[in-house]
From TrEMBL:
Domain of life of the source: Eukaryota
Coiled coil (UniProt feature): none
PANTHER family (alphabetical): ZONA PELLUCIDA BINDING PROTEIN SP38, ZONA PELLUCIDA-BINDING PROTEIN 2
GO cellular component: acrosomal vesicle; cell body; extracellular region; membrane; zona pellucida receptor complex
Domain Ig-like residues, every copy: 20-126
Alphabetical keyword list: Signal
Source organism (scientific name): Macaca nemestrina
Protein name according to UniProt: Zona pellucida binding protein 2
């Protein structure tokens, strides 16, 4: 049986909250519309959405005559301002305290007029902008881990087998805390060590996440469950530090 030797200690890193992500043009928290295929926007649960603007960036730099704005939500009903939905007179939409049921297609129709200077002839123009908005869940705390193991060779399937077995073992160790490994990866490198010659090492990296399957069962009815998930991920850190 191949022998594996742990070469380096675990490296722990605290990750912060990411900003809302979008495939649309974004400037200073304002997301402009785009005609055609809807852009995707991701909003962390219980955070406010970025401001969605009912026009494209190019049009926003022009004079608009008699603009009107009509927003339609994921339930295909007209949106009006309330304690959760904020719509300004200039057609800007923001959703407060974003929840999973609020995910879906948000559509805005902009109507405005063009006026010919010579004849004062008016023409109504309509443009539609679609925004696909999704809620996503991200822990307050997660941990990046990096470890190195020696191996006899970088060729063959043994390294891949070991990598899968290691992930399974780590998931089992954390299962009682509803945590699991995500984004695992590894590469094999040849490393020359003074007085030891050339050896082969596996550079393994992964992240510990507190949202393993069934994690909601530990929430005891809590809405966001942040206190419990934060406690679980910190407990994983403490437990593994005791093993080192």
């Amino acid at each position: 049986m191949r022998t594996w030797v742990l070469l380096s200690a675990v490296l722990w890193c605290l990750t912060g909250v990411r900003c809302p992500r979008s495939t649309l043009f974004n400037t200073k928290g304002f997301i402009y519309g785009k005609t055609g295929q809807p852009g995707k926007i991701y909003v962390k649960l219980h955070q406010n959405s970025p401001v969605l603007i009912c026009m494209d960036f190019k049009l926003s730099k022009k004079e608009i005559v008699d603009p009107t704005y009509l927003w339609i939500g994921p339930n295909e009903k007209t949106l009006t301002g309330n304690n959760r939905i904020n719509i300004t007179k200039t057609g800007q939409l923001m959703v407060k305290d974003f929840l999973e049921p609020l995910s879906g297609l948000y559509t805005c129709t902009l109507s405005y007029k063009t006026v010919k200077a010579e004849t004062q002839e008016e023409k109504t123009v309509k443009k539609r902008y679609d925004f696909m908005v999704f809620a996503y869940r991200e822990p307050d705390y997660s941990y990046q881990m990096a470890v190195r193991f020696t191996t006899k060779s970088c060729i063959g399937r043994y390294n891949d087998v070991f990598f899968r077995v290691l992930k399974k073992i780590l998931d089992n160790l954390m299962s009682d805390l509803s945590c699991h490994v995500i984004e695992p990866s590894y590469k094999c490198h040849s490393v020359e060590i003074p007085e030891h010659g050339l050896i082969h090492e596996l550079f393994i990296a992964f992240q510990v996440n507190p949202f393993a399957p069934g994690w909601k069962g530990a929430c005891n009815g809590s809405v966001d469950c942040e206190d419990i998930t934060n406690r679980n991920i910190l407990q994983v850190r403490i437990s593994w530090q005791e093993i080192e």
